[in-house]
Prior knowledge:
Elements: E1 2-7, H1 11-24, H2 32-36, E2 40-45, H3 50-55, E3 62-67, E4 71-76, E5 99-104, E6 108-112
Parallel strand pairs: 1-3
Antiparallel strand pairs: 1-2, 2-6, 3-4, 4-5
Amino acid sequence: MTIKVYFSPESDDALPTIQWLQRSGLSRAETWKQVYDIGVIEIQLRETPPVLSFLSQVEEALSISRVTSEGVVFYLTDIPLWMGVPEGKPRATSDKADGHLFVPMSNVVCINTFGSIYARHAAV
């Protein structure tokens, strides 16, 4: 599954993320602002944890707080998922407003700053 996220490192997480971006060749960012300015990226995972799958459907619910050679730490943003409980909709079972989720690098297929590419459909 491919998930759209953006970099939003906390000040303590910026340096390890900048170092990883430079070592990997994904970006030449040297400051937190330059990391943030990368904008939306796509991460393709081998197996997607259910919470990432669910929150990836909510705009701006996910961001990356840290990337190292060990893996990616997602920040699960404090946002309202819905007002009340809609009929037939899945529920969020956590009572936490926000949190972090670690995904090991062995589960990451690719990280893409280019964006989505979709094949053209032939005219009918």
